[in-house]
Design brief:
Beta-lactamase; alpha+beta
């Protein structure tokens, strides 16, 4: 009988079992890859053979309140490089073609090397047509180089409004890190002003065209005949509260001056015009901004990049006298019949001078004549902290919340401030200057405009804002944004008394009679704020028509002297421009069908 080799049998069985297991695993894996995970691998394969070409949406444009185009889009060419396909030996030639300094292209590529090599990098925006023509002639010899048509900002009305509009600039690495789901290297984003604050509304939604590429990343046709392409969706067109004509006049009035203007519609808080002078040319930011321009901008001693309308802090001078009058009347400290005697000044520890000797004056005549003596005494009757309480009701010492971002809060001192500074026995003589808007009081021109708008509208309005809403693409109607309501809670009778004094400033025997108009009643108050570094600053606040206010204005002109002489005439020009419009120049609710703006037919 033949012996059985059990060891050999066990070995063969083990090998057979292992082969069966391996075969089973491979079979299952093939089944998994080909059947269960086929879609995933198909997508990965597509990633290697499909190229997504980004389509930038048109950025939303800006209309004024009468639907005049203030900020538009104009076409511009942008040269791009896709590093995965690009030959860096072309750098020197591209530098010359673009008219750039040697090493320019290399520097741009180096800055963006942290991103995927398959993402196109914007090399230069605003290239000329001659560069585009050269590229078309040499396309075959320029692997990885292409150009796209993008839209840059244009300003068809010639209105600058640089601090309000803001501008777009290339996204920073930090911004890109925070918003990587939308932006790509080289994208432009809003910077400052409306462009920044409403970026998400303005930017729209990107689109993509998908093309097939071979192993060398060369385009060989459309993917799925374009069925998978996604069209871009343009950003929202914003309707601003600006009146373009009023803004233009404001800019003309402030040429060669330093200061600020803010005009508000009292009942709504809508900004009709806002200006900081000097300003700068936004066209310089539409393409690549030159170093020379930036150096001149930032080194200019007049600081044109500084927004004086919302950031400049100064004592408001006599324009603040109405605040003390309102506080005293509302608290019952005085009545319209209460009088104080002015013999040329007031003594409290020392002598505080008045600019005249007005005799016995009540609150209405004190506003009309801008009697310092009356308000020196009045603040002591009110008390410092109660006076501050009323300043806070009007929004002083706090930001207004205007929708362009940068803003200063200013300062209103109270007793705690002086106790901290001088101790419990702080000198009460300090209060006299506060009563006439001097001393440590500091406000912005925007705050003054809000204050006079609230006076004009009997203590009620809305948060100051520049953007009314957006234009619906389908209905062509204005969809309004909502802003917080303001209510000072002060009695209407109080405002009636104060407004009578302001009416007489212009239409009686006050300090601004030279801006009186025969057909429009203006109410206002002049102010001259002391400046220890040179000539005084000129102030004027006012509104019109006195009977039914439609516009409230604050004007500040730096280092020129008296408010009545230099600031009041500017306010008059704005008021006339706004209130003397032709009958057909009315605020629209939207656009009618078939209406054309900026050459674009807006028919549904």
């Amino acid at each position: 009988m033949r012996s059985v080799n059990f060891a050999s049998i066990n070995r063969r069985s083990f090998i057979s079992a292992m082969l069966i297991i391996v075969f089973a695993v491979i079979s299952f894996r093939l089944f998994q890859m080909q059947i269960l995970e086929s879609q995933s691998y198909e997508e990965k394969s597509a990633d290697n053979s499909i190229k997504a070409i980004e389509q930038m949406p048109f950025r939303g444009v800006f209309y004024d309140r009468n639907l005049k185009v203030m900020v538009d889009n104009i076409p511009a060419y942008t040269l791009r490089i896709t590093p995965a396909d690009y030959d860096t030996t072309l750098n020197e030639m591209l530098d010359k073609i673009l008219g750039a300094n040697p090493g320019y292209v290399s520097l741009i590529l180096k800055r963006n090397r942290i991103y995927s090599k398959y993402i196109p990098i914007r090399i230069k925006r605003g290239i000329g047509f001659e560069v585009v023509s050269w590229f078309e002639e040499n396309r075959e010899n320029l692997p990885g180089v292409d150009y796209i048509v993008e839209m840059q900002r244009g300003y068809p009305l010639g209105i600058r409004a640089s601090h309000s509009f803001g501008y777009t600039k290339e996204i920073s690495p930090q911004q890109l890190k925070d918003e990587k789901d939308y932006y790509a290297p080289g994208d432009y984003v809003g910077h400052n002003g409306i462009e920044k604050q409403y970026e998400k509304d303005l930017r729209g939604i990107k689109g993509f065209n998908y093309v097939l590429v071979n192993s060398n990343r060369k385009e060989i046709g459309k993917y799925k005949d374009g069925a998978a392409d996604k069209n871009s969706i343009k950003g929202k067109d914003l309707v601003l509260s600006f009146d373009a004509d009023v803004q233009k006049v404001a800019e003309e009035q402030m040429l060669g001056k330093r200061g600020a203007i803010v005009a508000i519609e009292p009942s709504t808080g809508e900004i009709l015009a806002i200006l900081s002078a000097p300003d700068y040319d936004l066209n310089q930011f539409a393409y690549v901004t030159s170093k020379e321009f930036l150096q001149e901008l930032y080194n200019n001693p007049d600081k044109p990049s500084f927004n004086r309308a919302t950031m400049s802090l100064k004592p408001p001078g006599s324009t603040f006298k109405m605040l003390a009058a309102i506080a005293a009347l509302d608290l019952g400290v005085i009545t319209p019949q209460t009088t104080f005697y002015c013999g040329g000044g007031f003594t409290f520890g020392r002598f505080f001078k008045c600019h005249g000797s007005h005799g016995s004056v009540n609150v209405i005549r004190a506003i009309e004549k801008s009697c310092n003596t009356f308000f020196y005494q009045l603040i002591y009757k009110i008390g410092l902290d109660r006076w501050k309480e009323y300043a806070l009701k009007f929004g002083f010492a706090q930001k207004t919340g205007i929708d362009i971002g940068e803003e200063a809060a200013g300062f209103i001192p109270g007793e705690d401030y002086y106790v901290k500074l001088y101790g419990e026995k702080w000198p009460r003589s300090i209060m006299a200057s506060l009563g006439i808007g001097q001393g440590e009081v500091s406000v912005t021109p925007l705050q003054l405009a809000k204050y006079v708008a609230l006076i004009a509208n009997d203590g009620k309005s809305f948060q100051p804002h520049i953007v009314k809403g957006y234009l619906d693409d389908q209905t062509k109607q204005i969809i309004p944004y909502k802003f917080p309501e303001i209510n000072t809670g002060i009695k209407k009778e109080v405002f009636d008394i104060v407004k009578e004094g302001m009416y007489l400033v212009v239409n009686g025997a006050g300090t601004a009679t030279h801006i009186r108009l025969p057909d429009i009643h203006i109410s206002g108050k002049t102010g001259t704020a002391q400046n220890p570094h040179g000539k005084d600053h000129a102030f004027f606040v006012g509104f019109a028509p006195s009977e039914n206010p439609k516009i409230a204005v604050a004007v500040v002109v730096e280092n020129v002297g008296f408010g009545g002489t230099h600031a009041a005439p500017i306010a008059k020009a704005l008021i006339e421009t706004y209130l003397k419009k032709k009958p057909n120049e009315v605020k629209p609710e939207g656009l009618k069908n078939n209406q054309t703006i900026a050459g674009v037919n807006l028919e549904n």
